[in-house]
């Protein structure tokens, strides 16, 4: 007896063993169908008695185990049911012979046998035979169960007769010595007449009778017999049989105490019924039918009174099991018996919830040496140990043995390693190591668990799945390892793991689909959200020129109706709400939108991320994937992911998509609590046209000073005061929508300077007439830039005049002149360096032109876009008054004002005054026009204005020097005045 | 229990002795949800450390069982020392649980006879004292792996002494 039956439990002692075997060629599935039907008859209540007979069916049983049948009768095969197919009457004799051969295998112990013949019809099938049943086919055999019941009853009759035969105390007769196979040679030549020998025979027989009683359903009788056997055998130190008697005692007591069974699973008995009776049993009120009304001869000492005494208490059961196992342990050949006893005891202890003791039994079972075990037996043994540890709640220990079993499956000594089985067993160990293959469990907080052991297990899973020929699983497990254990891996390990991951993915790229194993276990996808780690996600607004604006009139009520309070110090929203918080700005359908991620690479080597794109919901979104390469252990690194929304509506940025080491992963932000974000929902409005602006003037290098508004572009130009420049603006529709409306407005920025006339002027009519503008078309707009500034005032040009204003003699003003006469380029440079220097007279004038345009679906919704063009003009004074003097006029109340005008430009320019006398000045020419002036007479003020210079002769100061210049002429004007003198015109 | 243990037979052939005394001190945090993980683990010799990881890991089953059994009886006046958890072929595993359910496990070579119950008990006490010091460190985050040099040196000293 070398192969232990690990599934045994204490109540198996009361069963009778029936072997069901196929004879000849029987299809396996058909056989097991019939086998299943036969095994459904596991308990038969016997007519005329209230006893039950329990049957244990086996479809495979070693004849050598049968030899131990005398030792424990439940190991004896007492019934044989053969299943055979017989197509024709011709085959019948052969089939019959085979059946008889099979009967001979267990012949010595069989009480009865049956043959179930399928497929045979006709004469032979007609005959009524008790030991053979004929059925036309496997599907047409309605009374199989009935047949089996009859068969069991016939077994019972034999069993009962044997019991009675042995139980009747024939003290005079010589009792045969029962022995186990390995004892047989020990008794050769032993004195059969000695007291010792006789007692031995008696004890063993008692024990045997006890077994039979137990099988026949007479529990109390069995207990009595066992007790007697124990006493007898103890006196002769027959340890092996003493052990068996003790075990029998335990089994009977267990059956009494735990009618629900100890096997843990429904073993043929009705579990609901048994459980219901369990409580009754504990209180001792339960009556076992078989025990109470012992049909037939009641054994000698059995009585109502003795029952409670004979039965062992729960504590005693364990004590006796221990004793019994210790006796078995004395015999090397009884290893299997010892092991099975241990297993049975563990099951009993598990029911009693005495975990510590159970673990001791199991510990012992580990060390029982059964000699050379085949690999398969080893696996079975470790598996069952694992199962038993699981039963008593030692999940770690259970996992440990399961893992050992898994390793055994692929031991190098096995010619064909069972990687599949190994993998399956390894998967079963996961709960024991508190590992769950769903990465979601790990995303919460830092890792908690026995990392060293878990990493090892994951490596083993990877290896096993690879050898199984399923690289997809390897990839999944490796990804899991990387994702969850990243912080715990050393740099070297990280390298190795990623290398092998790359190897595997070259064969089978990893994806996001759920892998389903053949046994139904689902492996959830593992998004590698740590490669790279994303710290923050920020949605970016469109560039200024592309931002959509809502028409004022269509503005909706922006006040949130959530709370009646305008302000509350209590921040209502939680983190989760923050994510769904809507962002202020809007995106436009059809325009490229950007999301900025701050990422870093935790790996000690360069990380290549491919196909990094956005995952969105809400609107159709075309993500434009990017590839990036992050240096080893990089710091935070900004990555901009782009995409184009294809429809309008609210878009939700759910996460991002990456492909690292050949594993594609969809990382959802919901699962990444460490990612900071300022909201992920953005409204996408219907598409709008896009304009591109180009101008005839060069772009401005320096931005406008008051950069309140962001400008799409700006131009700069340098003009003399009074000069007019034409600016051609070309607007091209580069979008995909028709441009339907266009509005142009302008705003002058710095209002400190007094500006005369219109700075920017244009005629929109022509441009508007070309609308709607198809995509690709362009429209031009001519803008006149005219500068007229007041260069008087705080300037020190005529500063000297203040001091010397009353003197009527001419005064030279030299310093500003010198300054002005410097080359222009230099002035420019100076101007940029120190625009505030005293002698720099360059003034700047800035304006913003705004082009509001709209079209397409966006216009319907009331959105528009605007382009803004900054116009920056540096204005230089064109003329200087180098000398001022007064001449007394003919009337005392008047005087003549003489001004020396100097043209500082390189151009010819025309000076005109109110009296329409134009004066042409050549470059760097100085002339003296005269102006009549009055002394403090307001009524004459206007008439005194000469040559366009309005002057006021008040408290001897010129407060203003407005100048009116004209565009410089390149060529001398025809009405070239060469008059040097000035004839004052009488007022 | 001893009755059972005496019956360990057939294993005698397989028994092999270690010349070096092996001992691990593992400190384990116990959360309300049983999720034990090592705070500190140390063994000599360093090779084959994983084996001890397994030993200590599986011993937790017994520790948990013992705690739950004791916890019912008397919650406050509990003996911290759990005694021999279970003997394996080569090692003896001892356990100790603080009141805050931090577990200490010591694994010693079973051939080492100099370490009796009393010695193990005092080792645990030393370990507990040192662990208390670690916990008193304001910069130590309960639940983090222990990186204290003082604790490390005490453990090392104990291991040297024991061997």
From TrEMBL, chain A:
Its main location: Golgi. Residues 534-662 form the Trs120/TRAPPC9 first Ig-like domain. Residues 264-293, 964-987 are annotated as: Disordered. GO terms for cellular component: trans-Golgi network. Pfam families: Ig_TRAPPC9-Trs120_1st, Ig_TRAPPC9-Trs120_2nd, TPR_TRAPPC9-Trs120, TRAPPC9-Trs120. Residues 359-503 form the Trs120/TRAPPC9 TPR region domain. The keyword Oxidoreductase does not apply. It is found in: Golgi apparatus. This is Trafficking protein particle complex 9.
């Amino acid at each position: 007896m070398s192969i232990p039956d690990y599934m045994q439990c204490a109540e198996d002692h009361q069963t009778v063993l029936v072997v069901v075997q196929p004879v000849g060629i029987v299809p396996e599935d058909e056989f097991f169908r019939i086998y299943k039907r036969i095994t459904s008859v596991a308990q038969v209540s016997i007519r005329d008695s209230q006893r039950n007979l329990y049957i244990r069916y086996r479809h495979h049983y070693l004849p050598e185990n049968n030899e131990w049948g005398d030792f424990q009768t439940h190991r004896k095969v007492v019934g044989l049911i053969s299943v055979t197919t017989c197509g024709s009457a011709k085959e019948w004799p052969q089939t019959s012979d085979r059946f008889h051969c099979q009967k001979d295998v267990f012949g010595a112990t069989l009480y009865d046998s049956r043959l179930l013949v399928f497929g045979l019809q006709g004469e032979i099938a007609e005959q009524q035979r008790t030991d053979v049943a004929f059925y036309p086919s496997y599907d047409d055999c309605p009374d199989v169960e009935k047949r089996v019941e009859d068969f069991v009853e016939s077994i019972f009759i034999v069993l009962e007769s044997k019991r009675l035969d042995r139980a009747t105390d024939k003290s005079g007769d010589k009792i045969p010595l029962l022995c186990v196979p390995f004892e047989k040679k020990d008794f050769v030549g032993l004195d059969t007449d000695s007291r010792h020998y006789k007692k031995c025979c008696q004890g063993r027989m008692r024990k045997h009778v006890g077994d039979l009683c137990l099988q026949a359903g007479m529990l109390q009788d069995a207990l009595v017999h066992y007790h007697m056997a124990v006493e007898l055998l103890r006196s002769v130190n027959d340890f092996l049989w003493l052990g068996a008697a003790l075990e029998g005692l335990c089994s009977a007591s267990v059956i009494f105490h735990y009618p629900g069974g100890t096997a843990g699973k429904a073993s043929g008995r009705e579990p609901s019924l048994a459980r219901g009776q369990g409580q009754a049993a504990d209180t001792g009120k339960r009556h076992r039918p078989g025990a109470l009304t012992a049909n037939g001869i009641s054994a000698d000492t059995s009585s109502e009174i003795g029952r409670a005494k004979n039965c062992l208490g729960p504590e005693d059961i364990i004590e006796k099991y221990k004793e019994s196992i210790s006796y078995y342990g004395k015999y090397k050949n009884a290893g299997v018996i010892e092991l099975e006893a241990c297993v049975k005891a563990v099951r009993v202890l598990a029911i009693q919830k005495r975990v510590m003791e159970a673990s001791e039994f199991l510990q012992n079972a580990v060390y029982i040496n059964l000699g050379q075990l085949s690999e398969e037996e080893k696996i079975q043994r470790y598996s069952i140990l694992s199962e038993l540890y699981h039963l008593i709640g030692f999940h770690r220990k259970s996992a440990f043995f399961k893992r050992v079993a898994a390793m055994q499956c692929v031991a190098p000594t096995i010619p064909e390693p069972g990687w599949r089985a190994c993998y399956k067993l390894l998967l079963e160990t996961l709960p024991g190591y508190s590992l769950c293959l769903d990465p979601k469990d790990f995303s919460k907080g830092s890792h908690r668990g026995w990392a060293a052991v878990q990493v090892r297990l994951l490596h083993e899973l990877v290896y096993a799945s690879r050898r199984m020929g399923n690289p997809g699983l390897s990839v999944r497990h490796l990804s899991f390892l990387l994702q969850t254990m990243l912080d715990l891996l050393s740099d070297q390990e990280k390298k190795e793991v990623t290398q092998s991951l790359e190897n595997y993915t070259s064969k089978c790229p990893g994806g996001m689909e759920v892998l389903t194993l053949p046994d139904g276990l689902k492996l959830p996808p593992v998004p590698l959200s740590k490669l790279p780690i994303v710290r923050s996600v920020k949605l970016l607004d469109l560039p200024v020129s592309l931002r959509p604006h809502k028409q004022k009139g269509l503005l909706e009520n922006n006040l949130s109706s959530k709370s009646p309070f305008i302000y509350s110090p209590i921040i209502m929203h939680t983190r989760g709400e923050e994510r769904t918080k809507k962002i202020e700005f809007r995106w436009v359908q059809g325009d490229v939108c950007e999301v900025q991620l701050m990422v870093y690479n935790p790996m000690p080597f360069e990380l290549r991320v491919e196909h990094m794109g956005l995952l969105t919901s809400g609107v159709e979104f075309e993500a434009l994937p990017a590839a990036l390469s992050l240096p080893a252990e990089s710091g935070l690194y900004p990555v901009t992911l782009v995409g184009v929304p294809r429809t309008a509506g609210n878009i939700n940025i759910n996460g991002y998509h990456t492909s690292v080491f050949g594993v594609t992963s969809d990382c959802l932000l919901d699962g990444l609590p460490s990612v900071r974000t300022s909201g992920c929902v953005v409204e996408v409005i219907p598409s709008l046209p896009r304009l591109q602006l180009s101008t005839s003037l060069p772009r401005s290098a320096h931005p406008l000073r008051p950069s309140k508004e962001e400008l799409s572009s700006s131009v700069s130009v340098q003009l003399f005061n009074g000069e007019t420049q034409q600016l051609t603006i070309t607007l091209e529709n580069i979008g995909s929508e028709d441009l339907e409306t266009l509005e142009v407005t302008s705003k002058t920025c710095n209002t400190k300077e007094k500006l005369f006339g219109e700075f920017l002027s244009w005629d929109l009519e022509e441009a508007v007439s070309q609308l709607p503008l198809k995509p690709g078309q362009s429209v031009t707009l001519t803008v006149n830039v005219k500068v007229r500034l007041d260069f008087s005032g705080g300037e020190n040009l005529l500063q000297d005049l203040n001091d010397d204003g009353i003197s009527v003699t001419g005064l030279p003003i030299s310093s500003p002149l010198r300054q002005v006469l410097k080359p222009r380029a230099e002035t420019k440079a100076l101007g940029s360096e120190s625009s505030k220097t005293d002698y720099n007279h360059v003034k700047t004038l800035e304006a913003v032109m705004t082009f509001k345009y709209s079209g397409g679906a966006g216009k319907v919704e009331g959105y528009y876009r605007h382009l803004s063009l900054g116009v920056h003009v540096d204005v230089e004074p064109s003329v200087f008054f180098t000398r001022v003097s007064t001449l007394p006029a003919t009337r005392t109340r008047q005087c003549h004002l003489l001004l020396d005008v100097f043209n500082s430009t390189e151009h010819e320019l025309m000076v005109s005054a109110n009296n329409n006398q134009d004066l042409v000045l050549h470059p760097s020419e100085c002339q003296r026009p005269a102006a009549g002036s009055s002394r403090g007479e307001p009524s004459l003020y206007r008439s005194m204005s000469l040559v366009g210079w309005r002057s006021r002769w008040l408290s001897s100061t010129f407060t203003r020097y407005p100048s009116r210049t004209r565009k410089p002429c390149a060529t001398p004007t025809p009405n070239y005045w060469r008059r040097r003198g000035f004839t004052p015109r009488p007022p | 229990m001893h009755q059972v243990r005496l019956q360990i037979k057939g294993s005698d052939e397989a028994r092999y002795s270690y010349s070096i005394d092996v001992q691990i001190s593992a400190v384990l945090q116990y959360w309300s949800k049983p999720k034990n993980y090592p705070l500190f683990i140390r063994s000599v010799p360093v090779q084959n450390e994983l084996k001890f990881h397994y030993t200590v890991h599986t011993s937790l089953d017994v520790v948990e069982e013992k705690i739950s059994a004791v916890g019912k009886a008397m919650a406050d006046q509990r003996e911290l020392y759990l005694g021999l958890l279970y003997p394996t072929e080569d090692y003896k595993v001892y356990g100790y649980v603080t009141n805050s359910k931090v577990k200490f496990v010591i694994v010693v070579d079973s051939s080492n006879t100099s370490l009796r119950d009393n010695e193990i008990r005092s080792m645990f006490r030393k370990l507990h004292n040192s662990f208390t010091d670690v916990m008193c460190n304001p910069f130590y985050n309960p639940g983090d792996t222990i990186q204290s040099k003082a604790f490390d040196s005490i453990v090392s000293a104990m291991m040297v002494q024991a061997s």
